[in-house]
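Please study the protein below:
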Amino acid sequence: MKPATARWRWLRRGAIALALLLAAGAVALPLIYPPEYVRRVLVLGDADVDDQHWFARREVPSGRTVDPPDAPAPERVRRAFAAVQDGAVLEAWLAANGTLAFVVLQHGRVAHEAYFDGHDRARPVTSFSVAKSVLSALFTAAQADGLIASLDEPVTTWVPELLARDARFDQVTLRHLLDMHSGIAYREIPFFNGDNAKTYYWPDLRALALQHTRIAAAPRGDWQYNNYHPLLLGLVLERATKQPVATWLGRRLWQPAGLGPGASWSLDSSASGFEKLESGINARALDFARFGQLFLDGGVAADGTRVLPESLVREAVSPSGAVSLSTLRPGLAYRQFWWIQQRAGGPADFSARGNHGQFVFVSPRNGVVIARFGRRYGPPSGVWMQLFERLADELGKP
């Protein structure tokens, strides 16, 4: 047999074997996983900012919009950016790095807004994991209203079904879930069997949280970012408030804070619809910035309305008692779904962070809030944080 003919035969056999393997997988996968989950993973692939248009959604009730006053200072912000980014032109640099919206507040006023790729102030962006920090605020509200007695309650107080699978769930508290060290297993492996894909695409996220979570270690051990945590906390919140989480967000935070219209929370495809609590809030970039401002101001809205108790707000973003992540960066910590960065010379910065470069950064020492939402990261998350710190410090100069 000629070598070329032999090679062709082996290639043909390999192609046939691959086709048979794919056919077997197509038959087997729906027997292992829900067919809708298989379809989503295969068709949609990696998460994307346009997923907000694909998922069903629940509207967030809004009321009277009370936007902060404008104090336009675009040239000042551009000069500050050029000073800390090697002379780069702000808008050109942001556009080149996949940005959709960029908002800067200082001392509660809108200093600068920039929008790209057809976006403007009115068009919603999506949160990804910035939603976790909003969910944390909803627990702050539930505590303030006496619906949840303490973050040190076991999760099984509200979700007793977990005990039937493993009595050790009784050791996991709401605080363990918020601080990301519950001991619940989480595997960041690619494709179908990875927990990242499951917690994003599973068609019934309530069932996923109730039936697929498992204990791997005792709580307060190693810190691990875990998207099962917000799902379990969502179950707690809807049971404590007796309403969907998006409805509670509107009534307890969005409306009192005077945040804008058009916000929604993406849902799974279960019959009653469960919010995608690890991600999925869709709102104006300005409203996400104002959420950061609400925490900067200790729970007081732009019009002076007290929305959240100051003591609980300060506790949530305090480095004291937070989980240290100093192995990732000196001074970095995590608490109640907030990233906290202690730097020399003032109070700690804090931020909400989401996949593909969704950020709400707060610098109390400079009175600055920066919200950046993008189609992709551009620079890595840590580079963005250091850029925001330098920009805030530059803006804070007299």
Q: What stands out?
A: The longest strand covers residues 99-106. Residues 192 and 198 are 7 Å apart (CA to CA). Residues 49-395 form a domain with the Beta-lactamase fold (CATH 3.40.710.10). The two ends are 84 Å apart (CA to CA).
